[in-house]
Amino acid sequence: MNRSCRSTLYVLLLFAVSAVLTISPAPAVAADQLRLVGSGASFPFPLYSSWFKTYSKAHDGVLVDYQAKGSGAGIKDFINKTVDFAASDAAMTDEQMAQVKEGVQLLPMTAGTIVLAYNLPGNPKGLKLSREVYPKIFNAEIKKWNDPLIAKDNPGIKLPDMDITVVRRADSSGTTFVFTKHLSAISETWAKGPGFGTTVKWAESDKIVASPKNDGVTATIKQTPGAIGYIEYGYANMAKVNMAALQNRAGKFIVPDEKSGMEALAKAKMPADLRVWLPDPDGAGSYPIATYTWMMFYKKYDDPNKVKVIHDLVEYCLSEGQKISSKMGYIPLPENVVAEVRKAAKNIQ
Prior knowledge:
The chain is of the alpha/beta class and 349 residues long. It folds into two domains: 3-111 and 289-345, Periplasmic binding protein-like II (D-Maltodextrin-Binding Protein, domain 2, 3-Layer(aba) Sandwich); 113-266, D-Maltodextrin-Binding Protein, domain 2, CATH 3.40.190. Helices cover 37% and strands 19% of the residues. It has helices at 3-23, 45-58, 71-79, 94-97, 133-138, 148-152, 174-186, 188-192, 213-223, 233-239, 258-266, 304-318, 335-345; strands spanning 34-40, 62-68, 85-88, 104-118, 128-129, 165-169, 208-211, 227-232, 242-243, 245-247, 253-254, 290-298. Strands 1, 2, 3, 4, 6, 7, 8, 9 and 12 form a nine-stranded mixed beta sheet that branches. Helix 1 runs antiparallel to helix 9 (213-223) and helix 12 (304-318) packs antiparallel against helix 13 (335-345). The radius of gyration is 20 Å and the shape is elongated.
């Protein structure tokens, strides 16, 4: 089978798996089975899916059903009370939480890095992108891979005379929020232009294409020569796409991995409301785009049995669940954050 066919089959398979996991009918539930329904962020979906599947298998009377719709859709479902919990890489705002009369408890449950994955002829590894360059790429100001600003930091890579195709999220996305908040922090032009949010007004260009969710962006990058896009590290690692080293605040080019992500997190102090951002972290070894991601629960539920299961599920995620985070491409929560989350979970009644 030639490379083109393999790539096409990969893309079709990735989209098929995504469709099954996110829009297929919910599993049948026994009459005496307690079902928790959640929706939201695709960024932590591989990890959450593993957690919830393992937890459900270990508890015969419980089914945890989570659909990766994107952070914006998850928050909407949560406000509309069509789910028991939601997840988002963009923590709910005060205005959003004010719409929930039962109250909202935000719990950071894992963390990760957002990488710039790329697809270039010859599959060259080790691409470096400076703080000057990658905001301009995503704003359609740098249009060719052999642009002198890219070439300056990559003397060992033969960069093609090829158009750059930027792949962005099509849906309301916490990953977009984190990425554009970072771009706004390092680029005045970006801050005054697209700005940041779960959706932004991208530059008008036929070389900026949109795909849904992290897996959709990953698949589009994989099948499009000359493409670059922003995705969660675990997706890039699983799909075996190349990831650029990005220049951090200290001027160092840093590759995304657990060590550089943990160093970035170490620079952020967790506030009382558990909402913290790292738009441009300090530290010579810090990877520049790292984030916590949150689960959202109501502070008051009508069913005491559901509350009991939620407390047990949160504890599982904070203990056993953290042990598999690294191998799935996520950053385990620091011990002090775990302690704060445990304390905050008691507000769920």
